[in-house]
Amino acid sequence: MPSTASTPGALSGIKVLDLSRVLAGPWATQMLADLGADVIKVERPVAGDDTRHWGPPFLKDDDGNDTRQASYFTACNRNKRSITIDMAHPEGQALLRRMAAEADVLVENFKVGGLAQYGLDYDSLKTLNPKLIYCSITGFGQDGPYAERAGYDLMVQAMCGLMSITGHADAQPGGGPLKVGVAVIDVFTGLYASNAILAAINARDSARNGSGTGQYIDMALLDVGMAVLANQAAGFLATGQTPERAGNTHPSLAPYQDFRTSDGNVLLAIGNDGQFARFCAAVHQPAQAQDARFTTNTGRVQHRAALLEWLQPLMQTRSTAEWIALLQDKAVPCGPINTVAQAFDDPQVQARGIHMTLPCQTGNDIAQVATVASPMRLSATPVSYRSAPPTLGQHTQEVLQELGLSEDEVHALRTAHVL
């Protein structure tokens, strides 16, 4: 089960200055926060992170009414402390430099060169803190002809080719390129960024390295989009043939797709010849596994049309539940195509404690915030859930006093609209 214990996490003692917003950067820093890092999220006064306003849907208050807090923000900002600083103000810049001098990691997703004017770029900050690991996340990277362009998940899904292999073929009903239902390029960029940051921490602190210095990390959504094409990219590079959309079928496996049943749909994901033979035995047609066209996966892929001519009417002879009951104890992967609501209601999801609620401690109208538990399960240094996503500026006073400012100094900064 997920841990809410206060025992030190794997990244306890690591301080992260989070200047990022929206999804890719906050996803990376939430992973670090879940692992125990102290993540200080810096937001614009009054407005805050853009995703605080990306609704509906909005969080509900205790009476079931919409608040002005979009649920989007809660997906990637738990376990963080929020402060508000106007970095366009010279005193705000000075505060951020003081914080960077004490940080292990800084994450930002401003346009290329955008922080140099504030003295908050890597070259400026590494002189203050040679141990600083500085991660920049942009749409297209720090160099190349597109470096100055803004990059968004949807744009990159289109540019990297992901949309061209997602959806049904043009000739089929509903055919045409589709985006994935989640901003997967942003999420994957957050995952790659957090991995790069952890590698840089290890390199800095490793006895083998011995330098004790940080480094600069250049993360680009387009680079990640190309990387996560995975086998589709490998297939193109090996053959020169451009992959095409094929709906829910798999280009290299068969049968590996959805099928109509007598009352809905079911997913059959046969990944090897043994599974196919067990499927044929289960439906009392073992001869199909001996058919020269179907004995091997390569044959089944090459004769996909003939395979489906047999399978599609067969799969409609039972209900979805009947297929799952028939195959679940025969090591033949088969499962339902759930809605999100059905997925959260699944007994395995419930047993793993995926749906969690975290208490708010800010005295607002929201007492609990629902969240999805981290999938990282560490036995000795488990993920902890210390706090719900913060309200805007919730920890400004606390963090600045830790930095050495007095209450009067913080009050003066508020009066000057620096905070």
Automatic annotation (TrEMBL):
A single MF term (Gene Ontology): transferase activity
InterPro entries per record: CoA-transferase_III_domain, CoA-Trfase_fam_III, CoA-Trfase_III_dom3_sf, CoA-Trfase_III_dom_1_sf
SUPFAM superfamilies documented for this protein: CoA-transferase family III (CaiB/BaiF) (SSF89796)
PANTHER family with a match to the protein in the record: SUCCINATE--HYDROXYMETHYLGLUTARATE COA-TRANSFERASE
Organism superkingdom: Bacteria
Keywords noted in UniProt: Transferase
Organism of this sequence: Comamonas avium
Protein name: CoA transferase
Pfam families reported for this sequence: CoA_transf_3 (PF02515)
